[in-house]
Design a protein that fits this description.
heterotrimer; A mainly alpha (328); B alpha/beta (279); C mainly alpha (295); B: alpha/beta; Rossmann fold; 2 domains; six-stranded mixed beta sheet; 10 strands; globular; disordered N terminus; C: 295 residues; mainly alpha; ABC transporter involved in vitamin B12 uptake, BtuC; 12 helices; 2 strands
């Protein structure tokens, strides 16, 4: 991992660790922490989406479905089969990964518009299943009384514990994804995005890599879904519809698709926008989302991190990479 | 390594009755040809003769309609390109197809893909084997960049290089796969005279590394200077083959290039075979 | 009981006609621009709701309300091209997809703003009870839907075969650069394709609202199923879209009747996925020609 990324990671970890003490001064501690727990959960989903869409260049409108598969796996296994939540969690990831593999093998042969439609169609089918399989999912009325998580026998209570658990997981996932990107696999994914024909000719099994990164993104989405389930303790299909897939895409886009830092930034920002500042719009928030999405796609397709004038960039840039930047 | 070195006389690539059609248009017709290991083989022909189509077939980007392709004794027709690459065949592209937003070094490191192993888990968790492999990848890529003379530009973004260096970088990336057979599709296109000379010298050094080279090129000076053998394609079918001196005196070839009127008047000078546009 | 299947045939052909019209809308834009417009379904929804507005709100007679709704949605399609798509001429495919999706949720949000979340009904075009055929009931409105589809298909084929504009649009589809060189105003044709496509979607929306009601969030599913018809019929092919749309409608109606009404919506989507995965060139297309298309 380059020095720049390590520095950002360090700063991010420190800021995150200090955040609860910072908001304590403002009052409203539990409220902001609550929003941050959701932001963290969505970050786990969006790290995968950023790998898939920003780096490998493959669009997916099915992330809410994988999020939902993770959520319902955890919900159903713990409520109806009395599983330990920590056992249900990897089960959901495996299941989502398996489904992603089954769908991904044929779907990822498609490109562009066709791939978008295929993942969209798949996402809607999964949403219909959540609604129809009432015996398992509770259907539209939902699944209730989902147990919370406990760590070492102690139930996890209060936003602060959840905050550290979720963001700790985000950091672990982030390090994993950063390692991945700055390696053989990450280079292969970027190569597929930039020049697929040449990537294939250089010996990269492009089809297999696309499916693998799709499976990874599904597993991460499912992990986020599991956390979501145990945090809100209640599920209904409304949280896993097409609009949520679009929302995940929007979060990644706002920060910058081609940067994991952008994914984290955009997710936190848009979660605050959605949970805080748009509450006054109630149902009409969809208009705001549409406008932001349209504006970003038209005028800032590489997201906020592409704005070169952010002053911290100077500090973050190492001497070596600054010569890289000027070299022609 | 020495065990699998082919005998000089043994063919590394065998085409047998190869044919390709696009809709009703015949792009390649009944090509039967063998390339011995260890030589520089050129393929020439007027624009539209099917040279790039032939490369696409051999490297697996295009499935041939009929006929067979044997590379290192394996029947590779219909294989995915990445499998063919892993078997030791690499190529460059006529239209530069670099990973423009990656650094020069990273481009070459991507070329090492078939000669390395770490997958999603190993790289995500930075397992010790992966770190060793990453170091090795980086070193090999640097030595290849030094070999082609781009060592100083390792950190530059590939898309910012001038065209001449991009062409060389494509060769470096292809070399990183450790090919036994390297297909070069018009590497001199867009290069100036000095760069072309250096390219010719580079290609000869590549052959010296026990790599067979097949060159598609319009620059006849380069072709005549470095080729061991030349194959002339004309409307998707072999017209002639032989040594450079045999080809440049072949009346059929001269006629194919220049038409009937020119054939008699300027047959002697091979430089006039050069029909590269804009030259 | 015996006549149930005939009932399903009627239902299937009616909704199938709507899918066919949506599919034709996709094809018109795709042929000229190679864009798949994710907002196509929203045009149908807006057509229905605007017709309700013009009839109930403005007290216009039906033919006028129909025309007003179609024209209004056509204007939205026009605006979409002029002020959104044209801005993104050099955008990547990914950006274009996101742009049409963003536009679709803007339309959906606006509809919710204007009409709320309740479904709206519209009086059938002609009064009168259902016609009985062998024990199955056929709503007069279903005949209107079928008739409208037939009229649209006939007019479109005349337009593309006879009129200079239609021929010019087909030329753009074949090869935009060549079309530009022989003097076809490609930009105008692109504009026209969005207008036409939106108007046809709106007409479908007006016609189906008396049968199935209309609400703000119906667009996405209508769009997806219509896309299913477009793919099954072979993207860009009008007759294929018509046949595939009707087939899709029938499959859905029979599934709802004999298997499960809950999974009625899923059947069309499963068929869409199967088509995309195994026969992306469509039921009637050749795989050779499909390779030449840029998906």
């Amino acid at each position: 991992m380059p020095v720049t990324d390590r520095r950002i990671l360090l700063v991010l970890a420190l800021v995150l660790a200090a955040f609860p003490w910072g908001v304590r001064a403002v009052g409203a501690v539990s409220h902001y922490l609550d929003v941050m727990v959701f932001a963290g959960i969505f970050c786990i989903v969006n790290l995968g989406l950023s790998l898939l869409m920003g780096f490998a260049g493959q669009i997916s409108l099915a992330q809410a479905a994988f999020f939902g598969i993770g959520a319902y796996s955890s919900g159903i296994l713990t409520v109806q089969f009395a599983w330990n939540p920590w056992a249900a969690m990897p089960m959901g990831m495996v299941l989502a990964g398996l489904v992603a593999w089954l769908v991904g093998v044929p779907a990822l042969r498609l490109k562009g518009h066709y791939l978008a439609m295929a993942t969209l169609g798949f996402g809607v089918i999964v949403h219909i299943v959540f609604n129809e399989e009432v015996r398992w999912t509770g259907g539209p009325s939902g699944l209730v009384d989902i147990p919370g998580l406990s760590v070492a026998g102690t139930p996890l209570r209060g936003e602060i514990a959840w905050y550290y658990l979720v963001w700790g997981t985000v950091l672990v996932a982030l390090v994993f994804c950063l390692n991945l990107l700055h390696s053989r696999v990450g280079r292969a994914l970027r190569a597929i995005h930039q020049e697929e024909k040449a990537a294939e000719a250089m010996g990269i099994p492009t089809a297999r890599y696309k499916v693998q990164v799709f499976v990874l993104s599904a597993a991460l989405a499912a992990l986020g879904g599991s956390f979501y389930t145990h945090y809100v303790a209640f599920l209904n299909p409304g949280s896993f519809d097409l609009m949520w897939s679009i929302r995940f895409m929007l979060m990644v886009m706002v920060g910058g698709m081609q940067s994991l830092w952008g994914a984290v930034l955009g997710t936190v920002l848009m979660t605050f926008v959605g949970n805080e500042w748009l509450q006054v719009f109630a149902d009409y928030e969809v208009l705001v989302y549409g406008s932001i999405l349209l504006g970003m796609a038209l005028f800032l397709p590489d997201g906020l991190v592409s704005l070169k004038s952010i002053p911290v960039r100077g500090w973050l840039r190492t001497p070596r990479s600054s010569t890289e930047g000027t070299q022609r | 390594m020495t065990a699998i070195t082919p005998q000089a006389a043994e063919p590394i690539l065998e085409l047998d009755g190869l044919g390709v059609q696009f809709g009703g248009v015949v792009a390649l017709r009944d090509i039967t040809y063998q390339v011995p290991g260890g030589i520089i083989q050129s393929i020439i022909g007027p624009n539209g003769a099917g040279k790039t189509t032939l490369f696409n077939c051999i490297s697996g980007l295009l499935a041939p309609g009929t006929g067979s392709i044997r590379f290192r004794r394996q029947r590779i027709a219909g294989w995915a390109p990445h499998r063919i690459a892993a078997l030791g065949l690499s190529r460059t592209f006529q239209q530069v197809a670099l990973f423009a937003h990656m650094s020069v070094l990273e481009n070459v490191m991507v070329g090492r893909h078939p000669r390395s192993r770490s997958g999603f888990l190993a790289t995500g968790l930075r397992l010790p084997g992966m770190r060793r492999e990453e170091r090795e990848l980086r070193e090999r890529a640097r030595s290849i960049l030094d070999f082609v003379g781009l060592g100083d530009l390792a950190a530059a973004a590939a898309g910012t290089l001038p065209l001449g260096q991009q062409k060389i970088l494509e060769i470096a990336r292809a070399l990183a796969t450790e090919p036994r057979l390297l297909l070069l599709d018009e590497p001199a296109g867009g290069l100036n005279t000095r760069e072309t000379e250096q390219l010719g010298e580079l290609i000869q050094r590549i052959r010296g590394r026990d790599t067979t080279v097949i060159l598609v090129e319009h620059d006849m000076n380069l072709v005549m200077d470095i080729s061991d053998r030349i194959l002339v394609l004309y409307f998707g079918h072999p017209l002639a083959s032989g040594t450079p001196s045999a080809i440049k005196d072949n009346p059929e070839v001269i006629q194919a290039y220049l038409g009937d009127d020119w054939a008699e008047s300027s047959a002697a000078s091979y430089t006039s075979l050069d029909n590269h546009p804009g030259r | 009981m015996d006549s149930a299947w005939l009932q399903y045939v009627f239902a299937g052909l009616t909704t199938g006609s709507i899918y066919a019209l949506v599919a034709i809308g996709y094809n018109i834009i795709y042929n000229v621009t190679e864009i798949i417009n994710f907002a196509q379904g929203e045009f149908v929804m807006l057509g229905g709701l605007l017709a309700v507005f013009f009839m109930e709100g403005c007290r216009l007679p039906l033919p006028l309300a129909f025309a007003a709704a179609v024209l209004a949605v056509g204007a939205i399609g026009l605006a979409m091209e002029r002020f959104v798509i044209r801005q993104a001429r050099n955008a990547s495919v990914l950006s274009l997809i996101i742009i049409t999706i963003a536009f679709s949720i803007l339309l959906k949000g606006s509809a919710m703003f204007g009409w709320g979340k309740d479904p709206y009904r519209l009086e059938p075009f002609t009064a009168g009870g259902p016609l009985l055929f062998g024990g199955a009931a056929l709503q007069p409105q279903a005949l209107w839907v079928l008739g409208l589809t037939a009229v649209v298909v006939v007019l479109l084929s005349l337009f593309f075969r006879r009129s200079i504009y239609g021929k010019a649009m087909l030329a753009c589809a074949d090869n935009p650069n060549a079309a530009r060189m022989v003097g076809v105003p490609v930009r105008t044709m692109v504009l026209l394709s969005f207008l036409l496509s939106a108007a046809i979607g709106a007409a479908a929306g007006v016609a189906i609202t008396p049968i199935s009601l209309m609400e703000y969030d119906r667009g996405a599913l209508l769009g997806l199923k219509g896309f299913g018809a477009a793919v099954l019929g072979g993207l860009g092919q009008f007759s294929g879209a018509l046949v595939a749309g009707l087939l899709l409608g029938l499959a859905e109606a029979f599934c709802a009747g004999y298997l499960s009404s809950g999974y009625k919506d899923a059947i069309a989507l499963v068929l869409l996925l199967l088509a995309l995965f195994f026969k992306p060139e469509g039921l009637f297309g050749s795989s050779e020609a499909a390779k030449l298309k840029r998906f």
